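## Example record

The block below lists the input lines for one assembly entry, exactly as stored, with component labels intact.
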Amino acid sequence: MLVNAYAKSSPVSRLAVLLFAAVFAGINSWDWLVNPHVLSLKAAQTYAAQTDSFCKKGRIMHAAAQLQKMEAQKLSVEVKALEKRFFSLETAQIFFTELESIANQNGVTITSLKLIENAQDPKQLTGNGVSCHQASLSVIGKFVPITNLLKQLSDYEQKLDISAVSLITKNDRIECSMILSIYVLEQGGKK
Amino acid sequence: MNNKLALGINISSDQITLAMLKKTRQGLTLVKAVTSPTTESVIAAGNIKNPAQLARMIKDLCSKHKLNTSNVILSLAARPSLLRITDMPREVGGNVKQFVKDELKHYAPLAGKTVSHDFAILKNAKANRLLLGAADEDKIAGIVKACNRIGVIIRGIEPAALAAVRAIYAKHITKKFDSNILVAHVQDNSLTCFVFRDALLDFIKVTAISSPADPDSIQAFTDEIVSVKQYYQLELSQNAKNWEFFITGINSMQNSEAAVKSLQAHLPQNRVYPCLPQSIQADTSIICSTSADPVAVGLAMRFFDLGPAELKLNLLPASTDDAHNLQKFGLVMANTAAAAFLSVLLAVPVLKSKLQIVQDATAKQLKASDLPPMEKLLTTQNQHTGRAKYLKDQLTVLTSLSMAKQEIDYAQILREVQHRIPRNVQITKMATQPENFTMTLSGLAATYEEVNMFTKLMARSPVARTASLIKTEVDPTGTGLLSYNMLVNLAPMENDPNAR
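Predicted structure tokens for the full assembly:
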């Protein structure tokens, strides 16, 4: 039927049919053959532009990271310089262990040494790897040895604060109570 | 298509004449003129018997003489045909086409046939008049289709007599207001007489005659022309006017001379002039160096719209014209489609190569950048930034702690107390309140003066700002000594971190 209809159609109709078919084929061939490549090319061009942008950003970020690294190294050196003024966890333990011998050297006897849990930094400066440890120390001895002990503790190499000192005379000896605050640099100042 | 070249082809029973004109700056130039005899098997009695053979003959002639066949104007070779002037009533108004169709219905020889026709409105002050031409479409379509099929593109078909008039119009007819002009064209046993009054077409008469070579025919030819003149003299009282007679279509010199002699014998006072192929340069406005058939030249001139507009008819059937246009359109479409398809085919590799170039460039750029992945880069940057910030904050804390000195130097206080305490004064208790920088001393003394002295000495100490007795009383334990309480306002340490 269709063939017959086509055969009997006018030249204009045939041309219209052919034209439609050509347009249809053209559109479809464009869609099937060319358009995917066009889209791929567009995607590749976008990717190339993004890559270029990423490379530039990456270089900037890399440079910024290097600067930060250099700054961190510089700061690390500065921290290292101050590190010796503070206790580490290790030296803190040694200090408390050696405290008795220090007292004995000065001619006083430790009657009590208690670590204060959840100690609050009286200066409120701690943080960032620096913590405050406090201990309540009671010694008994003569006035001068106690003075010497206080002097030795005050002049200790690492940062050590003495507070709340009280003296009570007991017979011919003096009992001295105080609170020792030491500042500990955690992990030797490294994070 | 070359629009500067046109080929006029006059088809008659005995010969085909071709004339190619070229449009140049100087004017129309005759490029080539060709004549070839025909046979009765091709054309006879004014009708084309074998269109395909005729078309092939034309094509061969054109190929042989290298004639361009893009723009061909053919003479009408179809019988019966109509060429006449018709008066048009004023009430027709603008509906001329319908009037022409109605007129053609009354023309008996073409009754019942598909008619190809054309008309031109004549310039005439007295009445609206039409030049009307018509012929059997089937007879015309045959030769047109045959020609078009082999590449001879027919642009128009016109009666040969009109083409002859067009050819000589510029030289012999126009601007001749002092005489009547009669142009007699003889072709295929047909005499067509045109009368121009004041250079305007006024009258057409087509008469069948036998061959001009025959003496009887010459007499008939002469009588016909004389009768036209007499008609004007008697019916229209045109005695005073001069007459000029131009004879076209008689290509044989001998026949022409006989016809001219005959006419001059009957019209001794008037000019009789034969327009022959040999005198084409004198008779037409074209530039030429050889002889050519005036009809073929007139046909070619039609393509360039030369000559009076009212003498322009085109009997090319609309169907063949449409078919040709359609074919041309189809060809254009096919070429466009082919070009489009080719461009599609070419576009794919071009796009692929472009894609490859872009991808290669991207890969090269990535390789050249030598950077770690963005995620890792971000992590590294964050790590360095975080560490720098942490160290900065830590350094701030450490610096602050380093700068912060011991607020109260207890050893110094004890040394001051030791040095300043009088001999008979004893300390039993000492308590410091670092939060308000005070120290309380409690003890026993022998006398009040000594306690007072101790207080004054402590007040002068560098570790104290002030010192005052809060309370003194006799020791309640019965020792007989004096009990005292002293409040010392401590002075903060000198702000020298290196003092430690």
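The longest helix of chain B spans residues 318-369. Confidence is low (pLDDT under 50) at residues 496-500 of chain B.
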